[in-house]
């Protein structure tokens, strides 16, 4: 999580996605929601969302490859009580091509 994140401003640094090129999209899904919220690339590996209302954790993150268009989901990777500047890991990853 980016150090400037808060319940209304979500910013995440995506690191160590393997094998499928740069990301073209990062989406966030709140607890109890069936819809994905698109983020915007801020700079480098930082993706942000100005939600307008507090996000409800746990949060899932969907990554879309810019090369193949493949997606993967890190389900509930951001826990309830998340903290700005904290690191949360997922074991999902693109397969190397």
From TrEMBL:
Chief location of this protein within or outside the cell: secreted
UniProt source species: Musa troglodytarum
Keywords from the named record: Secreted
Domain spans labelled Expansin-like CBD: 8-90
Keyword Secreted: yes
Taxonomic lineage from the root: Eukaryota, Viridiplantae, Streptophyta, Embryophyta, Tracheophyta
Places the protein is found: Secreted
Protein name: Atexpb2, expb2, athexp beta 1.4 atexpb2 (Expansin b2)
Keyword NADP in record: no
Highest taxon above the source species: Eukaryota
């Amino acid at each position: 999580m980016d150090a400037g994140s808060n319940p209304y401003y979500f910013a995440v640094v995506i690191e160590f996605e393997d094998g499928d090129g740069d990301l073209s999209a990062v989406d966030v899904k709140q607890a109890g929601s069936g819809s994905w919220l698109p983020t915007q690339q801020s700079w480098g590996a930082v993706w942000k969302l100005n939600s307008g209302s507090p996000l409800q954790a746990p949060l899932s993150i969907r990554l879309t490859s810019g090369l193949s268009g493949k997606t993967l989901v890190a389900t509930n990777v951001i826990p309830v009580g998340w903290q700005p500047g904290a690191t949360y890991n997922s074991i999902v990853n693109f397969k190397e091509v």
